[in-house]
Design a protein that fits this description.
Elements: H1 3-12, E1 20-21, E2 31-36, E3 41-47, E4 50-57, H2 60-73, H3 81-85
Parallel strand pairs: 1-2
Antiparallel strand pairs: 2-3, 3-4
Helix pairs in contact: 1-2
């Protein structure tokens, strides 16, 4: 898996774009961040400006797979189905 495929899968699984960053996030960001360094890929969870390193990988494919698993295992990352379908209208 690569970043392009990861993006497609995140969308397919209704993961909120607000829950993750694949490029350097702004200072107010809170969520999962996949960072490409010169020699490795690092997964962080950022909350209140604090970066908590979850994992690091030598290969993009391994980092992408783990990143997807992290997001899928966290129920707070999903787009609300009712909102997505426009059901909340009153």
């Amino acid at each position: 898996m690569n970043i392009s495929k990861l993006k497609r899968l995140l969308k397919q699984h209704c993961i909120s774009p607000k829950a993750y960053a694949l490029e350097k996030p702004d200072v107010w960001f809170e969520g999962y961040y996949l960072e490409e360094n010169t020699d490795c890929w690092i997964i962080y969870y950022i909350e209140r400006g604090e970066k908590d390193q979850r994992n690091s990988f030598d290969q993009e494919c391994d980092a992408c797979e783990c990143f997807l698993e992290e997001l899928l295992s966290d129920p707070t990352t999903r787009i609300k189905t009712a909102r997505k379908r426009g059901v909340e209208e009153k």
